[in-house]
Structure formats: structure tokens, C-alpha cells
Write a structure and sequence with these properties.
The chain is α/β, with parallel strands linked by helices and about 230 residues long. It contains eleven helices and eight strands. An eight-stranded mixed beta sheet has the order 4-3-2-1-5-6-7-8, sandwiched between helices.
Length: about 230
């Protein structure tokens, strides 16, 4: 008798959470003076291009990632936690109904529900826990080994976190799960690596590259706009 649990994997930023935790955290750092105002200027053009529908969201988020990673060195862990709490207190309810309800449905069916994000693990972990996720993978920013009080600027396990398909395989092995009946939900092309592994891949509010790939592959495509959910 097979006792392995079915698995469902969700990207978090832009798929459940209606923004990016890394973006919101970076903005909070600037507001609190943890980062200088000049940090925001590093991605200001890409942000405006995206808001004006003249640029790509992935270009915008990449610019934010570069700014964050360039300036995280030396930041106090206590300041990071305070800013993360501020973001969660304000933003944790800003979720998409479709994916929020799908998580609840799968939890009732005893799925092992996995969250994945390229935002810092601490903030994603607390958000995902409130929704009932069983496990979270996020970015690990290294702390000083002696004091554990400040970030070194290094990122750990990059080879794993940037390959979401490998993360899913790793979780299946470590948690004694099965891909039979599995579900995956993502919104950008970076999610293709795990969507192609699951039995039910769902492209939710996909960007153009994921939309084209999903259409060719015959995957489910779901769009939530205002209070209407469309299936394309």
C-alpha cells in the first residue's frame, strides 16, 4: 500500500501574494533608512517602465534583486526582522483568491503543500505558515559566523534555489512524497522547470513567455482580474 502523500508546489511572489516580498522588503528598508534612498534609484527606471506597461516585470524584479544583494552586506539581522514584520503586518492579506482557495482545497485533501520563492526565506516562511504550507524554500542570506548579527552579503545554496524543478525533486525525496496526482502553480517562465514535472500544471496570471509555453504544452491557464477568475 502506497503511503506517500501527493505534493502541490506553489510559487509565492505574484502567484499567491499579489506583489513580491523582495520588492516590499527593499522598499521598507529604504523607508526605514536601512538602505539609502539611492538604492531605490537603482531600479526606478525599470519600475516606471513596468508601471507604464512599457517594460517587462522580470526586468524590474531583476533590478530590485541586484540592488538588494548589492547593499544587504552589513545590515543588522534585527533591522531585517523588524522590516520583515512591518511588511507582513501590512501585506499578508493581499493574496489572490484563486490560489488562496486552491491551497485550502488541497490541504483538505491531505496534500503536502510546498512554497517556493526567491525572496528571503524568513519573510516567506512566516507568510506561508499563515496559509498552512508544510514547507518553504526561499533565499538564504548568510549571517556573520561569529555574532550572527549582520549579513555578510553572501547567498547560500544558490545552485538549488534557482532551479525550482530540482527543489521539487529534492522535496519529494526528503519528505517521502509522490508526483502522482501532483499540482503546480506558477506565474513566470522561471516556474517552467517544476511545472513540467507535475501532473496538473497551472499557469496563473502568466507572463508572456510562460503563457506561450503553457498554451503549446496544453497546461491550464488561469487569470484573476478584479473579482473575476478566467480560464483560458
Amino acid at each position: 500500500m502506497d503511503t506517500k502523500r501527493k505534493v502541490a508546489i506553489f510559487d509565492i511572489d505574484g502567484t499567491i501574494f499579489r506583489s513580491s516580498f523582495l520588492i516590499e522588503l527593499t522598499e521598507a528598508f529604504v523607508r526605514r533608512g536601512i538602505f539609502k534612498p539611492s538604492v531605490a534609484k537603482m531600479y526606478e527606471r525599470e519600475k516606471q517602465n513596468w508601471l507604464d506597461r512599457g517594460g517587462d516585470y522580470e526586468v524590474y524584479i531583476r533590478a530590485v534583486i541586484v540592488a538588494f544583494e548589492k547593499h544587504i552586506k552589513g545590515v543588522k539581522y534585527s533591522d531585517f526582522l523588524a522590516a520583515a514584520k512591518e511588511v507582513l503586518d501590512v501585506e499578508k492579506g493581499r493574496v489572490y483568491r484563486y490560489t488562496r482557495d486552491l491551497v485550502r482545497e488541497l490541504k483538505k485533501k491531505k496534500y503536502f503543500v510546498l512554497a517556493i520563492s526567491q525572496s528571503p526565506r524568513e519573510i516567506v516562511r512566516d507568510f506561508a505558515a499563515s496559509l498552512g504550507f508544510d514547507k518553504v524554500y526561499g533565499m538564504f542570506y548568510e549571517l556573520d559566523q561569529k555574532t550572527k548579527k549582520r549579513f555578510t552579503g553572501n547567498i547560500l545554496h544558490l545552485d538549488l534555489i534557482f532551479n525550482k524543478g530540482e527543489i521539487l525533486k529534492r522535496a519529494v525525496e526528503l519528505e517521502n512524497l509522490t508526483l502522482k496526482g501532483s499540482v503546480g502553480v506558477g506565474d513566470t517562465a522561471s516556474d517552467i522547470s517544476f511545472l513540467r514535472l507535475v501532473e496538473r500544471p497551472i499557469c496563473f496570471n502568466p507572463n508572456a513567455k510562460l503563457y506561450r509555453h503553457g498554451k503549446r504544452a496544453g497546461w491550464e491557464i488561469v487569470v484573476e482580474r478584479k473579482d473575476v477568475i478566467y480560464r483560458l
